[in-house]
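Q: Could you write out the predicted structure for this multi-component system? I'm mainly interested in how the pieces pack against one another.
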Amino acid sequence: EVQLVESGGGLVQPGGSLRLSCAASGFTFSTYWMSWVRQTPGKGLEWVANIKFDGTEQFYVDSVKGRFTISRDNAKNSMYLQMNSLRAEDTAVYYCGRCRGRSIYYFDYWGQGALVTVAS
Amino acid sequence: EIVLTQSPGTLSLSPGERATLSCRASQSVGSTSLAWYQQKLGQAPRLLIYGASSRATDIPDRFSGSGSGTDFTLTISRLEPEDFAVYYCQQYGSSPLTFGGGTKVEIK
């Protein structure tokens, strides 16, 4: 059974940092692109970043470029999102998702989500 | 980026009725680069349809998708109690991938 489990969410002050983790199981993690997608009541669902199966390519939505870094450790079946210089508008539930498709993706499995709240 | 507009915003129906949800793109997403998801309160989205019309694993055949280019439809042939939820479309034909704003299917 495919499982994705996020962790690391919480409350952080504006300008602060947080690192999310996504632990994968039930499939060969090292052969799949993976993504982070966030959801807010106001903006809905928004793709944030994705990473190639071997970690050699990463892509980001413009609003997080230079602030967020996606990475993975295939030996640990895990993906990460390092979030720096956090802003109030980064407040969201962050989901990790397994990518399917070619070059641009849809998501066949999602984690349960990690809530990130940026507030003073 | 491609903007996806879903309509109606809310659909009020009774169990056993047919639900028809629309997703319209601001420009062509290609012939079949569209997915549909179901989301229940407090849960992650669940993939229902990909490639505009292919059902994902373990999705009942009362769910069907159709359309191409800019106009897509998700149909639930006979609503079951567990189908009342929010439904999102997502295009993956053009970067960046984008999601629609959702249609809530509620019990009438």
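A: Regarding packing and overall arrangement: The first strand of chain A starts at residue 3 and ends at 7.
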